[in-house]
Amino acid sequence: MILIVDDAPENIISLKKVLEKNGFEVDTATSGEEALKKILNRSYVLIILDVQMPGMDGFEVAETISGFSRAKETAIIFLSAASANVNLITRGYSSGGLDYISKPVDMNILLLKVKTFYRIYEQSRALNEMQKALRAEIEFRKEAERKKDEFISIASHELKTPMTSIKGYIQLLERSIKKQDHDTSLQRLEKVQNQIEKLNLLIADLLDISKIESGKLKFHIQSFNFATMLENLLEVMQQSNNQVKIRYIPGFTKEVEGDEMRLEQVIVNFISNAIKYAPDATELIVRTEDQGDVLRFSVQDFGIGMSHEHTQRIFDKFYRIEETSERFQGLGIGLYICQEIIERHGGKIGVVSTLGEGSTFFFTIPIHSQEN
Ligand code: ADP
Predict the structure, then answer these.
(1) Looking at the 3D structure of the chain, how many domains does it have?
(2) Per-residue pLDDT tens for 290-304?
């Protein structure tokens, strides 16, 4: 859009006509004051500015708008100015460009200048946009790099913790074997096994992540009895977590077509989190519901819960709730893997949670396989 500023309406009319005929959008003002008001409210590519006007003259207008951020990219063509005067005001004026045309205006020259300014304007806008996109891309790299570094450091720490325990227990084990203390040896052996199982799970998660990234997470879909799988699993989990009571409310008895091991992995993840993030709780509730062709599974805990803003993001890769990340160890990839598994079954995963009261993690899956 071009703004023509001239106190003589007849000049405005003829300029406007020519410019509009050449496809430019035109706005007008008949005084410097009116022009300033308009410039404050919208951005113009170019202002054609009469120098001699009663009240505020063209140079004063130009000087004033040099301070407007809206007019940073705006070019100005003065009408009837001597070049010396133009040079004077270019100092301290960082606009898109300044030029002048003597009166009476030669329309061909004016059009040529207008077109040149427009071309420069378009080019600089394209350049700006390109620069913006490049900057955003660089930031995004940087961000990915930072996340990766952070992940490597957390992952190494997480792997090191069970490793250190294993070393310690093996030393103790050696001592008790030398003393031929059979019972203590067996206890320590069991501790080593627990830690190895932890390591195993961590490494399995890391492998799953890289399989998801490369699209190589494979599923073996079969028909199986969900309730039987769940009951066996709950028995094992109850045994190894006897500080909490796992209450089971069954409501689903049908066969399900799906990858039994992968669904088991999701359930283990939900329950382990329900135990981990509810350190003071004495029970948690596991429910299954029959919703026709859909199975709904949920785990309700009475732990720390979370505020609403986190409920979507915790399924993102590497996302951990910052406020509690120091207190609870973890890699922030378990739920991401669960989400992938459930979505690949054509199902949905989610959480309903209240900060300080607890969370219910759930998934629903169609009982007939959606994998193809
Ligand atoms: P991890 O527990 O290893 O950090 P997850 O992917 O399993 O990774 O969970 C991601 C984040 O979601 C956790 O870091 C935690 O902040 C939050 N979270 C998961 N489960 C619960 C829960 N039952 N209660 C409260 N917060 C949870």
Answers:
(1) 3
(2) 999 999 999 999 999
Nearest CA, atom 12, ligand 1: 314
* Residues 354, 358: Cα–Cα separation, whole Å: 6
pLDDT digits (tens, 9 = 90+) for 352-370: 999 999 999 999 999 998 7
Q: Which atom of ligand 1 is nearest to the CA of 301?
A: 23
Within this chain, do residues 150 and 274 fall inside the same structural domain, yes or no?
Answer: no
Which ligand 1 atom is the nearest neighbour of the CA of 361?
Answer: 23
How far apart are the CA of 147 and the centre of ligand 1, in A? 17
- Same domain, yes or no: 281 and 339: yes
**131 contact partners, CB below 8 Å, separation of at least 6:** none
Burial label for 267, CB within 10 Å (0-12, 13-18, 19+), is buried
CATH number of residue 147's parent domain: 1.10.287.130
Q: Which atom of ligand 1 is nearest to the CA of 333?
A: 6
0.85 surpassed by pTM: no
- Sign of the C-alpha dihedral computed for residues 334, 340, 342 and 345 taken in this order: negative
Mutate to test the pocket of ligand 1, among 205, 270, 335, 337 (most ligand atoms within 8 A of CB): 335
Transcribe 132-172 into DSSP letters: HHHHHHHHHHHHHHHHHHHHHHHHHHHHHHHHHHHHHHHHH
Q: Is 164 a domain residue?
A: yes
- 3-class DSSP state for residue 363? strand
What distance in angstroms lies between residue 329's CA and the mean position of ligand 1's atoms?
Answer: 9
Whether 196 and 242 map to the same domain: the answer is no
Q: How far is the CA of 341 from the centre of ligand 1 (A)?
A: 17
